[in-house]
Amino acid sequence: MVIPIMLNGDCSSLILGWLMQRGHPEVFRRSKTIDMSDIDNNPLVQFHTKYYWFFKITFCFVLPVLVPIFCWNESWMEAIGISGVLRFVIFTNMTFSINSLAHFWGTKPYDTRIKPVQNMALAILTTGEGWHNYHHAFPWDYRAEEYGGNFTNPTTIVLDLFAKIGWAYDCKTPSADLVRQVATKHGDGSWSEVPVEECK
Ligand SMILES: [Zn+2]
């Protein structure tokens, strides 16, 4: 169950509808030209692909239902209903809200020519995805946000931690100058300068 939400009155962009639509033929044509061999040959990716359904069912449904039953005597009915189904519905809708709500409730400090907006409430709900105007203006920035890791973007804190121990590298961020130029030229005027941290 996913709540349908319209994006600019366009039925093709329903929060659920876009997932059910067949992609544009050009998407299929161009996706075939992308060299994915490094990812396809990565042993960790192969392991994940092979055991995807086992992990998905175990960690998404079996454990969340069994933990309350065996740890604090929750009833089966409540464990399945709340920890299993309700939790899954809430988190699925929070995740997909980025494709709908984050495109029409908020400011556009970086680029007014695109639909995505900045929305702190969504950033908190989705662990950092709500800074969407920035993310689409600078899609190659690993932080998906101008100011780096903070309580609204714990995903970046994890990535920075991985960078410190060598698991993540070549993390890209735009220079403070580039951000200033883009925001000044295309933003809605709500941008203000805060130093940009570089990924080490
Ligand atoms: Zn988007």
UniProtKB/TrEMBL annotation:
One GO BP annotation here? unsaturated fatty acid biosynthetic process
What are the required cofactors? Fe(2+)
Q: Where is this protein found?
A: Membrane
| Principal place of residence | membrane
Keywords tagged on the record: Fatty acid biosynthesis, Fatty acid metabolism, Lipid biosynthesis, Lipid metabolism, Membrane, Oxidoreductase, Transmembrane, Transmembrane helix
Give the similarity note: Belongs to the fatty acid desaturase type 1 family.
Q: What is this protein called?
A: ACYPI010011 protein
* Source species of the chain: Acyrthosiphon pisum
Q: What is the lineage of its organism?
A: Eukaryota, Metazoa, Ecdysozoa, Arthropoda, Hexapoda
